[in-house]
Amino acid sequence: MVKLENMKNISLSDSVINLDHGDPTAYEEYWRKIGDRCTVTIRGCDLMSYFSDVNNMCWFLEPELAEAIKELHDAVGNAATEDRYIVVGTGSTQLCQAAVHALSSLAGTQPVSVVAAAPYYSTYVEETTYVRSGMYKWEGDAWGFDKKGPYIELVTSPNNPDGTIRETVVNRPDDDEGKVIHDFAYYWPHYTPITRRQDHDIMLFTFSKITGHAGSRIGWALVKDKEVAKKMVEYIIVNSIGVSKESQIRTAKILKVLKETCKSEAENFFEYGHEMMKNRWEKLRGVVKESDVFSLPKYPEAYCYFFGKTLGSYPAFAWLGTKEETDLVNELRRHKVMSRAGERCGSDKKHVRVSMLSREDVFNVFLERLANMKLIKSIDL
Amino acid sequence: MVKLENMKNISLSDSVINLDHGDPTAYEEYWRKIGDRCTVTIRGCDLMSYFSDVNNMCWFLEPELAEAIKELHDAVGNAATEDRYIVVGTGSTQLCQAAVHALSSLAGTQPVSVVAAAPYYSTYVEETTYVRSGMYKWEGDAWGFDKKGPYIELVTSPNNPDGTIRETVVNRPDDDEGKVIHDFAYYWPHYTPITRRQDHDIMLFTFSKITGHAGSRIGWALVKDKEVAKKMVEYIIVNSIGVSKESQIRTAKILKVLKETCKSEAENFFEYGHEMMKNRWEKLRGVVKESDVFSLPKYPEAYCYFFGKTLGSYPAFAWLGTKEETDLVNELRRHKVMSRAGERCGSDKKHVRVSMLSREDVFNVFLERLANMKLIKSIDL
């Protein structure tokens, strides 16, 4: 066993590590320890129909998932669920596109401008351009956006890639042509203090980033307006005729256990996640501090209503910068670390996005390589 | 128990029955009898990563699903799998859009025309129009299509809605601007004789219509050309960052059992499905024959290599016509039967598509209502 472990480390120490995607495998260990309580068993004759609940506008949403979502938000206190429609999606990726589609189809004129304040989640660019829709148009950075006509602002808070707390930046008082989609993928207690119960028109959440179950492809939207929710549902029907029932049932079960652990001292998932993230960030800040060439954003502390104390932020991605005039993504690649280029996020070559959610051994190799890069750069200077 | 059954029937006899969608719940009984062999158990720590196989171009495809797909096609003999890329999708719905997107993005000029011979699957219209893409344009009926430039023909065989065996109809010799997507959702032995091993460039299949597991949202494409497969994968990455792992794992397990039953006398799923479909079609043809107002297509018999004998076709949908000058979809709706309007399929008011895959009790209520419609029509005449 020890021998195998060593072999694994040797092989890892040679290989390229991929921190470009935010693959949240960091949490596997927790779910392994939780044991059978999250195990789902599905028989051959289960979940065969397209329909989950013919009386729900979102007829492909499993009722027990809807219930689990509401209970979890209630327990965490991060979002209002009452008087809202829940729309389930194949990840929040599909839901973001469904929301842009819905808002655009309800707008008076098209194409509707879509913007996000830089640095933004690079995938927004691809999501709003790849089908070359005539309904909406990616207009890039929301800072300084001043085009007339209807627009959609994507607000991610805490922000991907840089972890900052965000609000809308397009400021048009009394303008009812502006719509906002709030992406709250990371508004959970292990990443950031829960400072308020969010209460916006369209709020997106994803299973992936809460518990680490990215492979399930489950996201949900909490939507105030009935017409918007209806259009989102229509989009998902044409796009994929609903969402995997197996994933929904499993998500429901895990979210229920997650909610139960909220009250537990020993097993609280958010406590576990918070400690892990804090630990990783402290290590990373340690390496960066030792270096003369790297930088990281600083986050203010805030009172977290979930934990009942003042805490810092420990985002799912590190927005790593360099003080050198260098192409950081290439620099890291030379050191066998794949990251996401700042330019793809509407920023510059001196920044990259690095996932903080890899498995522990991969994260440690990353720290090691980063520390070595610093040394090499120092010699270069 | 008997009382409850009766109550259920009473309630069904009053309610609207929905045969608009092809919800394939007819097969539930078979899978109930198969018992534990298809049961999957998924632990909390399983299937967490986005990635299934980083060495596969389609990195979100579970290797055991790929294996099960190849083995099933080999056992049934309905499609060639060698020297092909397998792309998994959230149903063949997502894959059809991925294929149209891929072929369009590789075309010299855009928008690429998309056509299908009428009567066609009505959802093709929605799939190719809802995002108002600039890359492709729905041009409707392939019969008589003569627009210059690149085009994609969607060929569904057996056809949805009318069950006929189809080949391409746009005839442009030596024209390399024409591409074809073959939708083989219904090319399985319970619906139609397997007369050849299909060997086309892009072939789509869906789990839903083989075994009835529509809720899993799993489809796959067999793709010859590497660039096309790559573009399809790219589409699915942006559209939903892959496909539910839970659904894939479960599909793999069920397809493996399905393949095993192919060799069994007592449990052969296709034998079971074939008998059920044949029985339903005979009953339906009986009702239609008794009527003066309805019509159904006739299908030629053919030698089925899977069953090793000459057999008829028993499609998943009935393409019901009327000899009267009437709006058949409304006529049926008045009798509490929801069906899909022929006009939505590029046909006329005198035709509707009716699902043959409902639960047995629903199917019987449909037959009853159809028989009564005949009587009412006769009195009217």
TrEMBL record, chains A, B:
Transmembrane segments: none
Domain Alliinase C-terminal: 17-373
UniProt pathway annotation: Plant hormone metabolism; auxin biosynthesis
Record localization: Cytoplasm
GO molecular function: carbon-sulfur lyase activity; L-tryptophan:2-oxoglutarate aminotransferase activity; L-tryptophan:pyruvate aminotransferase activity
Segments forming a coiled coil: none
Single biological process term from Gene Ontology: primary root development
Reaction(s) catalysed (UniProt annotation): L-tryptophan + 2-oxoglutarate = indole-3-pyruvate + L-glutamate; L-tryptophan + pyruvate = indole-3-pyruvate + L-alanine
Cofactors demanded by this protein: pyridoxal 5'-phosphate
Gene Ontology CC annotations of this record: cytoplasm
Swiss-Prot/TrEMBL keywords: Aminotransferase, Auxin biosynthesis, Cytoplasm, Pyridoxal phosphate, Transferase
Family, similarity comment: Belongs to the alliinase family.
Entry protein name: Alliinase C-terminal domain-containing protein
Organism, scientific name: Brassica campestris
Lineage, highest ranks first: Eukaryota, Viridiplantae, Streptophyta, Embryophyta, Tracheophyta
